[in-house]
Amino acid sequence: MKVGLFIPCYVDALYPEVGVSTYKLLTSLGLDVYYPESQTCCGQPMGNAGFQDKADKLVDRFDKLFREFDYVVAPSASCTAYVRIFHPQIAGHECEAASKTVDLVEFLHDVLKVQSLPSKFPHKVSLHNSCHGVRELGLSSPTERNIPQFNKTKTLLNMVEGITVVEPERPDECCGFGGMFSIEEKGVSTKMGIDKLRRHIATGAEYITGPDSSCLMHMQGIAAKQQFPIKFIHVAQILSHGL
Amino acid sequence: MSTLHAKRANEFVKDTAKVDRHDATFWSVRMKRDAMAHEVPEWENLREAASQIKKHTITRLADYLEKFSANARRNGVKVHWAKDADEYNAIVLQILREHEVKKLVKSKSMLTEECGLNDFLISHDIEVVETDLGERILQLMGVPPSHIVMPAIHITREQVAECFRKNGIIQKNGLQAAESMHGDLQKLEAESDPTFLTRCARYHLRDNFLTAQCGMTGANFGIAETGDVVVCTNEGNADMSTSIPPLHIVSMGIEKLIPDYESMGVFQRLLARNGTGQATTVYTSHFRRPRPGCEMHIILVDNGRSDILGNEDHWQTLKCMRCGACMNTCPVYRRSGGYSYTYFIPGPIGINLGMLKSSDVNYNNCSACSLCCSCDNVCPVKVDLSTQIYKWRQQLDSLHHADPLKKAISQGMKVIFDNPRLYTSSLRMAPIGNYVPKWITGMAMEPWYYGHTIPQFAKKSFHQLWKEGLDDDAKTKNK
Fold first, then answer.
1. What gap in Å lies between CA B413 and CA B428, rounded to an integer?
2. Residues 6+ apart with CB under 8 A from A228
3. Which chain A residue has its CA at the smallest distance from B463's CA?
4. In chain B, which residues have their Cβ closer than 8 Å to the Cβ of A19?
5. Does A144 sit within 8 Å of B34, measured CB to CB?
6. How close, in Å, is residue B134 to chain A by CA atoms?
7. Which of A151, B135, B423, B444 is most open to solvent, judged by the fewest CB atoms within 10 Å of its CB?
8. What is the C-alpha separation between B105 and A227, in angstroms, rounded?
9. Which of B83, B82, B150, B80 is nearest to B110 (CA)?
10. In what order do the strands lie in the sheet with B295-301?
11. Nearest CB partner across the interface for A11, out of B9, B34, B462
């Protein structure tokens, strides 16, 4: 299976270790992993700010770069959702690459259907269910809905030896990032972040983990400012731990 | 980079105790709603049915309106049509004048709020008394509602006591209220006892029910098959408003129609469960014809609704039945309060309805959304609320309300992201930013620095790590 690795811009610049973990994890599962070097961003920052038209070229290039792969895998729920849902809308037609773009959790859970992982992580982690992961990709059942309960990220994390996975009260309430929302609505965004962090910390976990570094980045920045004692780690880093 | 909503919200969040109370209050309603939704196994099917029924009705609105009005007339109801707020207000005034009405009692109606009816009537010397307790409190305080279902929930009981004192309600009804509770007037008043205050309000409203010449209700549903109007309340005030005065006026937006009682069964099961977490409203009142010797009028109001119907991106807002659940679940509404919004309907549905009403004022609310999509999932009629907010943001530039800084940042991103070479060279330069003194980065990134520390760029980006041979074997395979 030929897999194209999509490492979104802010992961590239701020959290390259998340990309490295993803790469290691995928190759350890025997996959051919390719990284087209002229990739940049999914376009979501402009879209959420109201300028999706400025992402038209980027959408086109994304399709050309990635359409040859069986799957395009990204360690970021929100960017994946933007590619899969919004790219066809911006392009005005179906996009082959977008239809094959999946988040790492989806890929492991739904495509590869992994039943076990070799990693060990003897720590208590509080799972951050990112909004776009939950409500756009369906990584877990949204709490608003009366449908059978599931959580793909939690299922995968529970395959890791020694781990204790907990979820905060209000398990899928937004952390308040929302791209430019966090600077345009700084008061509400920060308050949402503080509230979310308090609930994660109340679980007694050492780490907050999630499938989306953008939420983690937002909470990490607030936690540092507030001097909250909690660490952050991306799901890919836990699932690949010890590789 | 700050909209009016953001500015007001920044003030609102300063009072941490207040914002926490506001958040907890509405979150508890969301929790009650969830408990109800999870008790009904066919919940998601009901939502789908409700969405389809609304879509069906709205896309055949002319036919259903004709059917509804014909049936209502057959029942002896006088039916009026108003194309906009001015026409609506004029029709109400004319009916009231024909009946020499001096005092009007009203049950809750968002449509009258939309059309500015109260101020219009008061300016024509008609006394208007809101009879929903929350609405009455706000009316006496001279402030607008901050939520469409629980309009005065942000007001404390101490503020209510103060308001009732100022308006002579405790002086007039306090003794009777205290006696009915076998309690001490001074003590009950000093404690702003909720039961005491409610009884004072009850006697005060009873006087008004008895002395009004006209009762007005809104309409939660209009049933085309029968010409009936259905009004849902928890206080019975719609029934009191219509049982005593000889004249009943119903104010109804044309989107309130549903085909028949079979459909009504679907909405009846959804409305209160989703709005307040009750299995049903305490009163579900069905009005078909005037009481003997009395008159009943229905005013069907368009006021922009036909235009919305023709709007490809936003017609779905017409499915809304005003349950308020999107506000209760909205993390931004809960932490910014109803008054941070420039439109009288706040929250996700209010952002959209406000833009449809007047984008020149209400573009200020488009920032009030983190695009978490929770509203889409609580909506009982599946209005695509967050998608619509996203679409409005795309239109702000052509409406001349785009934020210049956001536009400049987006343009800057376009330049970098469209040029892979520029992008990778920027990545190489980025870590230098880590060594810029904090007071400079803090100033440049003020809004981010307000709540966060500045993120640290990695010494080497993923791009660089890959180039340097993250995995030599894989690198040879890479094109």
1. 16
2. A197, A201, A222
3. A12
4. 462, 465
5. yes
6. 26
7. B444
8. 55
9. B150
10. B78-82, B295-301, B247-253, B214-217, B103-106, B127-130
11. B462
Taking CB atoms and an 8 Å cutoff, what residues of chain B touch A132? Answer: 371, 373
pLDDT averaged over chain A?
97
> In 10 A of CB B435, how many CB atoms?
7
Nearest to B461 among A16, A27, A58 (CB): A16
Q: How confident is the model over B315-325, as pLDDT tens digits?
A: 999 999 999 99
- The pLDDT > 70 percentage for chain B reads 97
Length, in residues, of chain B: 479
DSSP string spanning A164-226? EEE--SSTT---S-TTTHHHHTHHHHHHHHHHHHHHHHHTT-SEEEES-HHHHHHHHHHHHHH
Neighbours of B357 (CB within 10 A): 17
What tokens does B97 get?
């004048």
Check residue B442 and give its pLDDT: 66
Listed residue (A97, A125, A117) closest to A211, CA to CA: A125
Of A104, A167, A160, A94, the C-alpha closest to A137 is A104
Decide: helix, strand or coil at residue B104: strand
Please report, rounded to a whole number, the percentage of residues in chain B having pLDDT higher than 90: 89
Cβ atoms B273, B279 nearer than 8 A: yes
At B475, the pLDDT band (50, 70, 90 cuts) reads: very low
pTM over 0.90: yes
Strand partners, A72: A4, A101
Each residue's pLDDT tens digit, A16-75? 999 999 999 999 999 999 999 999 999 999 999 999 999 999 999 999 999 999 999 999
pLDDT digits (tens, 9 = 90+) for B92-104: 999 999 999 999 9
Q: Is A82:B373 a contact under the CB 8 Å cutoff? A: no
- CA distance linking residue B377 with residue A142, whole number of Å: 8
Contacts of A193 (CB under 8 A, 6+ apart): A175, A176, A177, A218, A219, A222, B451
Q: Contact at 8 Å (CB) between B241 and B217? A: yes
First-to-last C-alpha distance (Å) of chain A: 21
B371 contacts A131 by C-beta, under 8 angstroms: yes
**Rg (Cα) of chain B, in Å, rounded?**
27
The verdict on a CB contact (< 8 Å) between B374 and A49 is no
Q: What spatial distance separates the first Cα and last Cα of chain B, rounded to whole Å?
A: 42
Chain segment B252-275, per-residue pLDDT in tens: 999 999 999 999 999 999 999 999
Residue B478 confidence (pLDDT) above 70: no
Tokens of B118: 């109260």
Task: Flag if B462 and A55 touch (Cβ within 8 Å).
Answer: no
CB atoms within 10 A of CB B279: 10
| Spatial CA neighbour of A123 closest among A93, A158, A162 | A162
Show residues of chain A in contact with B273, CB under 8 Å: none
pLDDT the model gives residue A58? 95
Cβ contacts of A191 on chain B, cutoff 8 Å: 13, 19, 335
Crossing angle of the two packed helices B404-417 and A56-66, in degrees rounded to 10: 30
Task: State the Cα–Cα distance between residues B100 and B97, nearest whole angstrom.
Answer: 5
Give residue B433's pLDDT band: very low, low, confident or very high (50, 70, 90). Answer: confident
Nearest to B58 by CA among B289, B277, B314: B314
Q: Do B40 and A146 touch (CB under 8 A)?
A: yes
Q: What is the 3-state secondary structure (H, E, C) of A124-178?
A: EEEECCCHHHHHHHCCECCCCCCCCCCEHHHHHHCCCECCEEECCCCCCCCCCCC
